[in-house]
Design goal:
Helices cover 0% and strands 39% of the residues. It is mainly beta. The protein has one domain. It starts with 7 loop residues before the first strand and ends in a 6-residue tail after the last strand.
Length: 64
Amino acid sequence: MHATKGDQLVQHGRVVGQHDKVGEIVEVMGQEGNPPYRVRFEDGHEAVCSPGPDTEIRHKEIRT
C-alpha cells in the first residue's frame, strides 16, 4: 500500500450498519509512501494508522 500527502484513507465498516471512516493523509511516516500514515479524519481528530485489509487509499490525482 502506497500513499502520498493529500490522498484519502477510507476505513470500511466491519459490521452491518457501521459507516466508513474517511480521512486525509497529512503525513507519510514510512519510506517511499509506505505506512504508517498520520490521518486527519472528517470529525477533526488525527491518528497514526497502519492500514489493514479493510482500508482503501484514494489517490488525489484520481478522485473527481
